[in-house]
Specification:
The structure is a homotrimer. By secondary structure, chain A is an all-alpha fold. Chain A has one domain. Helices cover 74% and strands 0% of the residues of chain A. The first copy, chain A, is built from eight helices and no strands. Chain A starts with a helix and ends in a 14-residue tail after the last helix. The A-B interface holds A 23-32, 35-36, 46, 50, 53, 55-57, 60-61, 63, 66, 77, 80, 86, 136-139 and B 50-53, 55, 112, 114-115, 117-118, 121, 132, 136, 139-142, 144-146, 149, 151-152, 195-200, 205.
């Protein structure tokens, strides 16, 4: 088992838990909770695989993803009372998932020989599309368009990955370092309430 | 013409009518009604075909699906006044479509050699994704996440199919039996107001 | 560079600007504006390519699409004050994009040997799906299901294209003529407030 594969399973579990938490917050039934967990966990990778033509999608060919999501959903449901400060828990899992999946997606783009900008876009999409789908299914405007700087952290991490993978020979180290960069940038951004500049000077439009 | 193909067309017509009824209830114009009917009818199968890489999708290669949807939409528009108790009519068509498409999708998963859990997921997805897309396009939280036990009926039917297809030699009989199982489970579930257990003891979260 | 390719880039720019205008109207941050611009610009073509199995999608293989969208987004952001009568500007760009993409999609369907009805559907989908995705991401009921006759203009243009391409030898001329037909039909439809017949005689349902 490579660090790559292990990170993918960790990201899947983290995103499944973040999805399950949102679904329970919307008071969905257990099946709804599982579906939202599932979509949040595999949504980004599925979109990446569809757009690049890597079909059938990976989670249909490796049943471990399904087991990871089922396990994560059950654990989240069981421990829902311990996760009472759910917004912080949700944020933590979401951030881990975003960090892992950004590097996963960028790596796949690089291996497939796409333009660096496309590889960065694939990384960002892998990280963010699951959450976008989760929000659309829950009838919210996707959080990524509204708050914080999810995507900037992904893009910085993806660019760092593109640079480091040419310089550092230990590929597992590059995965872990750049994943941590995405996570740290995002945590710092939230801590310092950094956000992108607004450009709306007039009050209404 | 096989029972398989015939069931597929029947499911397509049933889902197209259910979609057209929802769209008319939302007071959409005739084009909007057709699109919602179309998406409801082919959405699940299209998602299944994309994820498994069976492209171009089937309704692009067999024009009969388009004719079936156009016909179903026109009939629904013409007889909309006779369908005045539309919620029951909608429910009936929706249930038939769900029964047929569950078995269709599961069969395709089995034939393609996927893990039984993936085959069950493909069946459930084929049955449910059209309705999910319909609800998203109409800006509702998908009904499947909120009410009744749509998916449980699909999963029971899909499991029964997986068991019976190894035991019963007459494959057409298996199709029809398991389709009826999905329909009957769903009707019973609604009749007895059975729903999944809630696990929200605290009032707000 | 063919007229086909040039039209595609023009349509991409027009749709990116229309998407950016909607996103700025929703007061999204710069990243959200870019994503909505991107999705609006490539959404229709991406859906067309996925359904027909033309993967990886075209904008992953030709970086010019990304440059066009980035440029269009930046220009829209810079000149947002000059575009203060944004609804008319939005409408104009949207109409140009719809005209161009209808003919693009229909042409691809014809070349791939699909049934004429499927080719028309591909054209209409290429033109309309980006806007549908934009509206779903912004949590609106897609405008296409509610107002004006977007799709009728597309269908008329696509049918004209199917007829003319057999009669006229200058293929660039056919592209431009039929693109203009879509644009003119849509402008006339809005000018004369033409809309599809309603069939809701009862007040509520």
């Amino acid at each position: 088992m490579t660090a790559f594969y292990l990170l993918d399973i960790i990201g899947t579990i983290a995103f499944a838990m973040s999805g399950a938490l949102v679904a329970m917050n919307k008071r969905m039934d257990p099946f709804g909770v599982f579906i939202i967990a599932f979509v949040t966990a595999v949504g980004g990778g599925t979109m990446r695989d569809i757009l690049t033509g890597r079909l059938p999608v990976i989670w249909m060919q490796d049943i471990n993803y399904i087991y990871a999501i089922i396990g994560a959903t059950i654990i989240t449901i069981i421990f829902r009372k311990k996760l009472r400060f759910w917004s912080k828990t949700f944020f933590l899992f979401d951030t881990i998932g975003i960090g892992v999946f950004t590097i996963m997606g960028t790596e796949i783009g690089v291996k497939a020989g796409f333009h660096p900008m496309i590889s960065i876009a694939l990384g960002t999409m892998t990280a963010c599309f699951g959450g976008v789908t989760r929000d659309i299914l829950c009838n919210d405007i996707p959080i990524i368009f509204r708050k914080e700087i999810y995507a900037i952290a992904c893009i910085i991490g993806a660019i760092t990955f593109l640079i480091l993978q040419n310089l550092v020979s230990n590929v597992n180290l590059v995965y872990i370092e750049t994943t941590l960069i995405v996570i740290i940038v995002r945590l710092l951004a939230v801590y310092f309430k950094f956000s992108l500049p607004a450009f709306y000077s007039n009050t209404t439009s």
